[in-house]
Every structure is written in C-alpha cells, then in structure tokens.
Design goal:
alpha/beta
Length: 326
C-alpha cells in the first residue's frame, strides 16, 4: 500500500484484472521480440565473419606487424547492429543482477520481529511509520509494520492484507522487476516505458479491487487505511493516486494505449530484422587468427601492457586505502 485515497463505501470499484494482464502480456511480447531481434543480429554477425590464418590486412609499424580484419559495407552494418544487440543483452543482464542484489539487500535489512498472530505468512517489522508491502520474487512475502498495527482497525488491517495478498498471489514484485529490466535495456522501444508505468498503476488498482471483494464490497475500510498510510506527522495527506480514487468511486480509470509508440516500436523491430537479414546475405568479413589491431608478437604486447597494469593496480590500491576504516 503506497498511496492514500478517499472513497464512498457504496460504490464498488471497477475490476482492472484483464487490463493488468493485458498490459503485462504486451510488455512481455514486445520485450521477447526485442531480445529475439538482438540475438538474431548477433547470430548473423557471427555467421558473416570468416576466420582464416591469412585472411586479414597486415601493416608494419616501427618494425611490428599488426593485423586488422577486412569487411565490406554490409558486414560493417551487420557488426554495428550486432554491437547494439550485444549492448542490449549486457544491459538487461546487468539490470537483472542489480535489481536482484538490491532486493536481497533490502529484505536482509528488514527488522523482522516475527509472524503476525493468526497470519503465519505475514511478517511484522519494527517501524513506527505505518507501512505494508509485498516483497520477494520467487516466494513473495507480506510485511506490515508495528506502526500500521497500532493505527489500523481490524477491518482496515483485513483490507490491507487482502490487498497485499493479491500482489503476492500474482507475484507483482517479480513482474515489476522484469518490466523495469526490459524498459531499461530495450531503449530503442520507448513504448516499454509508459507500459511499465501503467502496469505499476494497474497493479495497485487490481489489488484494491481484490481487497474490496474480500470485504464483500465495502470500500470504506480500504479508503480509511489508505488515508492512514498517506497522512504525514503534520496531518497533511500526500501521494493521492487519481487512478485508485477513481476505482474506489466506481469510475473506470482513463488510459489510452500509446498507439504511435507501439506502432513505431513494431516498425523499428521489423526494420532491424529486415536490415540485418538483407545485409547478412552479402556481408563478408575476413579476420586472421590474431585479434584485430593486436600485434602478432605476443611478448611485445605483454611488455607494452605492464605499465598499464601497474597504473591500474596503483589506482585500485589507493581507492581501497581510502575506503579503509580509520
């Protein structure tokens, strides 16, 4: 529960479960298509490069022999697209790793005092501020603070737990993490950013609808609980979500699919695949067994790298010394 709302208890909320599922499936479909396109151009680039002992240009500089590959314009284009695809794959792996590390670190630092009486799957954390959230990817868990237990009534707590239970049932933390990683990596598909933001809003509205159903259509407890979570110590209410307010009032959230961005993304994917496929048909890149722009005399290369390695070791040593506790 992150945003407060006011609502009339007589107006049933509009269910947005089909919309939430549609937004997430659209994200996954576009993300899968983007990753497939990146993998395809990488494969085409690998197929276009032919390695042979004497299939590259050689140049002598200062008595040292260097090599560099030969390629035509089509091969250069395929390799450029492959570099883009490799960058996307690296970014999505890095995003997934960082999110997982941050998530584990966050859960490890929670001051859990034990399970909530009568709710063995709900963990209580020691915090004076009213909080309730769902965390965890494979086996998500619900957390509620001691401040929330002090300020909420029994009915309000039931509404909050039902809300978070829906997040847990559909694994919303994992879905949001996947959505965020796809939006960050596939930067050439800008439609993924508004879809990611939209799913975050729809997930909350959907969980609100599940909480109201659990309370047999009563919206008052959920609305008052939201106000409790959103009230600051000064008495000011902040963070009101218009979508959640409209849902609790029985009004469908107004949102339109960004068709222009969606069509633009599909055209971009089709263009990348078609361009890479057409260029790979005539692409020809020849390389020797030596790495490009690397001297064929390994001992000279090693000697040249020694000063660089020494400088890097010195810099890393100074940084480690600067971070050491005094």
């Amino acid at each position: 529960m992150t945003s407060p709302a006011t609502a009339r208890s007589s107006a049933p909320p509009v269910s947005s479960e089909p919309a939430a599922g549609s937004v997430y499936r659209l994200q996954l479909a576009l993300g899968a298509a983007g990753l497939a396109a990146c993998s395809l151009v990488l494969g085409l680039a690998v197929r276009s490069v032919h390695v042979a002992p004497a299939a590259a240009h050689r140049i002598d500089v200062g008595g040292l022999r260097f090599t560099y590959p030969t390629m035509d314009a089509a091969a250069l284009l395929v390799l450029a697209l492959a570099a883009l695809g490799a960058a996307v794959l690296v970014v999505i792996l890095r995003s997934a790793w960082r999110q997982a590390a941050n998530h584990r670190r966050f859960i490890a630092t929670l001051p859990v005092t034990g399970p909530l009486p009568g709710h063995p799957t709900v963990a209580v954390i020691e915090a004076s501020a009213p909080m309730a959230f769902c965390a965890g990817w494979v086996q998500p868990r619900i957390y509620v603070s001691t401040g929330a237990l002090e300020h909420l009534t029994v009915r309000e707590l039931d509404a909050v737990l039902a809300h978070e239970q829906h997040h847990r049932a559909v694994r919303d933390p994992l879905r949001l993490a996947v959505s965020r990683a796809l939006a960050q990596a596939l930067f050439f598909l800008p439609v993924l950013q508004p879809l990611h933001a939209r799913y975050g809003d729809v997930a909350e509205v959907t969980a609100d609808a599940a909480a109201v159903r659990a309370l047999e259509g009563a919206t008052g407890p959920l609305a008052s609980a939201l106000l409790t979570f959103g009230t600051t110590p000064s008495g000011e209410v902040v963070g009101i979500s218009p979508q959640r307010v409209d849902s609790l009032l029985g009004e469908p959230p107004a949102w339109r699919l960004p068709w222009l961005l969606l069509v633009g993304g599909l055209v971009t994917l089709a263009g990348v695949i078609a361009l890479a496929w057409r260029a790979s048909a005539t692409a020809s890149a020849q390389a020797s067994l030596n790495l490009p722009i690397v001297s064929s005399q390994p001992c000279v290369l090693v000697l040249a790298l020694i000063p660089v390695i020494a400088c890097l070791a010195g810099v890393l040593g100074r940084r480690a010394t600067g971070r050491a506790p005094h």
